[in-house]
Amino acid sequence: MVLVTVNRNSYRRFIKALSVLGLLFSKSSEVNCMSKARILIIDDDENIRKVLQTILEDEGYFVETAETAKKGIERSEKAFYNLALIDVRLPDMEGIELLSKLRTTKPKMRKIVVTGYPTLQNAISAVNKGADAYVMKPFEVEKILQTIQDQLKKQDEEKSYSEDRVVEFIETRIKALETANQDTVAK
Amino acid sequence: MFGQLAKRSEFDKLLVSAIDEALNSLGESVKQSIYFHIENQFKVPRKKIPENLAEFQGGLEKIFGAGALFIEIQIMKNLHRKIGVPLKMESENFEFAEYVGVAKRGFLGKAN
């Protein structure tokens, strides 16, 4: 293979310029991501599912629902969701147990626990099992929308951080390839 | 003859677009970084990828190792969606360049 010398300074400037552009992109994509985020509602109460779905779809989110933990798990396995609203009491599994499972299988999905029985113990268990936020029934629409927005923003920030790590990984791999090429030429 | 050339060119554009979409899913800066290094290290500019598939595939695999497979599968899914030919994973030993060849033949055959 031909050894190619990349000018690191020009590459750094290039990536820096991209970062600036990236900021511009992220602003528009953040709005885009916020309005088109995919949300999964897991609640056995049909009225709550319907009301929440209507409210969230009116806000521009893509919403799907599941009435049991099992169906919620199945849906989350088949499709990507940015965020899940999880009822703490489900017919086939405690919401806290479901949280624990989803924490392992879907670590990137933001998880908001919903309960009509707010106790300190519930809140502590939910957070310990991987809940990102906690909302109470009956819903205050503004509050739940704000909580969802906050969680999606945090998810977006995590995504940007992950992208930076991938770019660093690529740079490291390229350096390793260059070094290996240099060693081969030297031999 | 001209029609066939036009179809080949259309396929190449769809392929580049499918690659763009797959890399975009990793983030804009990641996509630009991959294109930058594929061009500088492996001498394959973005628009020349359709003519240098094996080199592009080799570059991805050198950078990402086994992880390249996920990017390649995503590219294939995007490509098959764009050309309207369903993706069939006929072998467990997925070979990106071969699949693109099959997709291209399917697309050109469909066009005739």
Strands in their spatial order, largest beta sheet of chain A: 2-1-3-4-5
Q: Tell me roughly what share of residues is in helical segments of chain B.
A: over 70%
Q: State the shape of chain B.
A: globular
Strand residues, percent of chain A: 5-15%
Features:
heterodimer, A: 187 residues, alpha/beta, five-stranded parallel beta sheet, B: 112 residues, mainly alpha, globular
Q: Overview of this structure, please?
A:
The complex is a heterodimer of chains A (187) and B (112). With 187 residues, chain A is of the alpha/beta class. Helix content of chain A is 63%, strand content 13%. Chain A has six helices and five strands. Chain A has a five-stranded parallel β-sheet, with helices on both faces. In chain A, strand 4, helix 5 (120-128) and strand 5 (133-136) form a beta-alpha-beta unit. Chain A is elongated, with a radius of gyration of 22 Å. Helices cover 73% and strands 0% of the residues of chain B. The N and C termini of chain B lie close together (11 Å). With 112 residues, chain B is mostly helical. The mean pLDDT of chain B is 88. Chain B has helices spanning 2-24, 28-42, 53-64, 68-83, 96-111. The chains are: A alpha/beta (187), B mainly alpha (112).
Q: In summary, what is this structure?
A:
The complex is a heterodimer of chains A (187) and B (112). Chain A is α/β, with parallel strands linked by helices and 187 residues long.
